[in-house]
Structure formats: C-alpha cells, structure tokens
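Recap from last week: sequence in, structure out.
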Amino acid sequence: MKFLRFIILLLAILTAYFAQILFQSPNLLQTAPVWLFDLAPFRSLLFWSPDNLQRLALLLAAAGAVLYGLLVQPLPANLERRVGLVGARSARIGGTLLLLAVAIGAGLLLFTRNSPGEPLSLHLFWAISLLSVLLGGWWLTSVAPPAASEPASNFIQPERGWPYFLLILGVAALLYSWQLNLLPIRVDAEIANHGLQAMRILSGEESRIFAPGWANLPLLAYYPAALGMLVSGDWLVGARLAGVFAGLLTLLGVWLLACELFRRSPISDAYGFLLQDNGRHAALLAVVFTGIGYTFVHFSRLPHFMEPVAWGTLSLWALARGLRANDRLALGLSGLLLGMTLLLYESGLIFPIVALMWLLGYLWARSHWFRPADGGVSWAGIAVWLAGIFVFLAPTLGFWLRQPALLAGRIETISFFNFWENVRRTALTFNVFGDTSAFFGFGGAMLDPLVAPLLILGVGVILLNLDRLLSWQLLAWLVGVILLGGALMVEAPFWPRLLPALPAIGLIIALAVDRWRATLLTIGGPWLKHLGTVALAGLLLLAGVESWVQYYEANTVGAEPATYVGRALRVLAAEEVPFLVVGDGRPAWNEPVIEYLGATRYRPLLQGELQIDDLPTTLPPHSVILLFPEDQVLATTLQIRYPGGIYRVQRDRLGNPTLVIYELP
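Predicted structure tokens:
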C-alpha cells in the first residue's frame, strides 16, 4: 500500500504540472515536446480550442489538488501557548498608559480635524501616544513561570533557524539590489511622482507627516524613499532602496509569521531520527518561495508597492504571537503596524480584513485564548490591539474628516462590475493571466511555471485540512486578497494590489512541500526523504535561475522615450547643456519621469526645447541635442545648422536604437 500511495502521489503532482502546461499556452506544441502528442491520450488535444483547454486544465488542477491533499500526511495539531497572568499593579499601570494613548490620539484627531497645520508638538505627542500603547501592552503582560506539568513543546523555538534565515536574506539583498540603477530600465510616471514627492521632503520643502501628498497618500508614505535618497545620494537608486528594504522586511515578516504558524512538537523515532522538526524548515522554505519569483523581485526594486505588504505581514505575525503567548505588547505592536499599513498604498486595505478573519478563526478554534480564567488575552488584549490601530491613524483621520473626499478617493477603485469574471481572472493570474497594470509589463503569469503547480497542491492541502487553524488562516488570507485585491477592482488582475498574496502563497507552498517531505519519510524512510530533498533543491535552483532570466530579459528593454531622455541626463557632463526636440507627441522637459531622473543635476529643468520647424540660429558651446530614433531624418539639417557636432546612438540590449544624441563642441 505504501508503494501504491507513493505512485498515486507522484501522479497527483504530475497532474498539477500538466495542468500548468495547458494553462501556459493554448498552443501545446510551444510548451511540450512533440513526442508527447504521439501518444494516443494527448493527440486529440491538438484540436481543442483554447477555452476548452483551459477548462480541462482547471479540472486537472482540481483533481491533482484533491489527490495530493488526501494522500499527504495530515497537518499536525497546533501547539497551545504558555499561560500568562496579569498582576494587579501591572494592570493598573498598563490600563492608565492605554487610556493616556487613546486620549492623546483623540486630541490629535480633533486638532487635525480643525487645523491644517502640523506643529512639532503634534508630532511629539503622536510619538508619545505610540510609545504609551507599547508600554501599556508591556505592563499588561506579566508572564508567570511555566507550571511543571506544562509540556516541553511549549518552549520550542523554530526561530533558532535564524542563521540560515540571515543567509537567505543576504542572498536576497544581493539579488534585489544588483544593478539597481539600471534594472528595471523603465521608470513609470507614478513612480516618478512618488520620487518627486520624496525629493521635496528631502529638500526641506515639505516637513509634514499626516497631510495628504501625491496620489492622496499621507506624506508619511514618502519618507522611506526620502531616507533612501539621503543615504545613497541618488534620487533613482535611493527611491528603489526603499523598495529593497520593504522586500527584505517582507521576508522577515514571512519568516517570523511562519515560525508562529508552523510551530510544533518535534518527533523522533526509537533510533533518534527526527521524524518531524519544530517547524523551522517549513519557515525557511516559506521565505525562499516568497522571495524567489520574478514578481517579488520586480516590485522589491520599486518604492511604494511592497511597503504595505511588509508592515501588514509583520502585523499579522505580531497578532498571531500576541494571541498565542498572551503577549499584549505584541498585540499593541500589531495594532500600530496595521495602522501604518492602512496609510500606505491601497493594497494595505486588505490586511485589516485578513486580520479580522483570523480573529474569527481564533474565536472558533481557540476560544479559551480569550478567556481571562484560562489565562487568555481577554478584552484588555483586544483593547490594546484596537488602541494601536486608532492611535496610529488618529492624526490622519482628522485630515480625512476635514476633507472627506480624501478618504473617498482611497476606496473609489472598488467596483462590483463584472464581479465573477474578475474573480476568475484574479484566481487564475497565479497560473495564467498577466498583469493589467503598466508597472511590470510582463506577459506571463504571476508565478513562475515551475512554482505555480506547487500552489495548486498547497491549496489541496489546506482544503482537505480545514479542521486546522493554520488552513483557515492561509485560506482566508488568499481568498481575501483575491476578492479585495482583484475581484472588486475595475481592472483585474492588477498586480500591485495583489502583492499581499505573495507571502500567503509562500506559506501555502511551504506547507505543501513540508507535507510532501513528511509523507516520503512515512512511505520510504530517510532515504526517500533525502531523495525528495535533492529534488526540491534542484527545483529551487532551476526556478530561481529561470525567474531571474525571464525578469532580466523583460526589464532591460521596452522603456518609454521619457525614460531614455531622463537616463541620458544622468550621465551628461557638468558643462554640457541639454536641448530636447519636442512636439508631435514627443515628451517635454516637464514630464515627471524626465524631471525625476534628471533632478540629480538639473532641478528644476529649465533647459531649452527645440521645435523642428523653428530651430534657433546658434546654440551655446557644449550643447547636446537629444533626439528620438524616428528623428534621425533631422541629421542633415542639424549638421548644416550646427556644424562640427558628433552623433552618438544609444541602443538597448537587443541593439535597437533608443536615443540619438548630437553633441556640439
């Protein structure tokens, strides 16, 4: 029976991968070897329509997921937490600090509701209120020594795998920061406007925090990019450093959260061989599968988008830890981080819904964690969490109450039009559909084709183990992102709003792989488990290389003309004077992308603009005329009007001309 179980398990995995082949392309000859279709079962597929092939792929994916979920080892029981007791003195001091924080927050809300100014005292009182929440939570958490009868598993620490996590984080830092100024080559107008707002903060033109900035985001959202610019001394690299930091912070949040969710008792056999670890291997796998894909790499090289994912993931970790360990300091931290998440890019609105769904799961499966008689967090712990959210949001809430249009603008993209089609396209974007936004421009699915089938298998695991709290948490997270980040949007799938799904996907895939390794150990012993580990290492290496190659090829070409003009300004010598040929739809100096990229030496950009039909008689020495490839017909005219110059053609990686530069002596 063990051998039969192993064969059927392999069949389930192959079914998921074959479904992915069908998902990838309607033309099967482009995605599979020709000899495969010489076999009778596959020959007829050559004549199927793309819609029918996609339906077949869905049926195969569902079958593979169900088979996999049925055959792998079931999830182990979630561990209980150590009991915490709160002393009377701690409760009095903690409650006082919490009331102080809420009172200050209410005062700040009223102040910003009636005044647009932000004096230094406002920022100071806000900082005091944040600190009061954390101190109040700390005083309300007084963990008693463990009872002698408590099982030793309560003290398991999967966090002891931190050296391996730091190694993974170091590799990720190199990957996300390599050629940061050049890759991606394209700079979108929204990213440019984000950078320009950060530049105004860095130059001292703007010192507010809570007032709305560009794109109706509080100015707090632009301070990470401003800090990156200050550290690097370069506007483009500095803003992208904020994305790198957010990507690494997201990996930290995934690791901490995975250590909480996968925490379990280690089990050894009679010979001392480890049959089940404490969850640290699954936590490390979650980090790798989250950060290895081209989608995560790309958005970790941009500001603005990954930051709410980082703080939201950390907020969920602090919430899970606070409830498990009766740690009200962690609950206060969770509330503060969730408040920060709500002030960033619109995708941050997803995390409060996910947190509420998690709370419902805890109330259903761990109701005694909330009962004071059982040493639970009680309503005091929930109050600390809510106070953290309120205090962080309070000053910005005042601005929103004074100008309700600002708050309405953050939810105006929600739409119920074409709901079910949006659900379908969003749910399949991980395997089939590409991004509808212009921020990536990648034609493939959100996940690498070698990794996407593992998500199918992982969904099968959590659906067949819904009696476990972990399954509910991961399913609620993924479904919440699909509905709020995709189905209710006007355009689906819009990847910038689906980024909160990436940590959940990493956790789900890690769970699927963890159950695969546990099943191999049960079926064939250590040797089969080691064979599965080697196969997993090969898959990770191949998927990582393929993801990077696809990303590099897609993002080193295809930039818009304004990007090439701005990048040319970055490398001009100090004595050179740039001129830009404008008109007939060509970009001008006031384009946000040009102003942003050229702001290192030309801020504001007050250089000349040339009209094709009205060229000046002379130009200053060391003038540089920037032309586009279609303007090469002006070569003779410019040489006659401004003799002695030298033409230089800039090309992309494929040899296509991107910009023509005429340099005068």
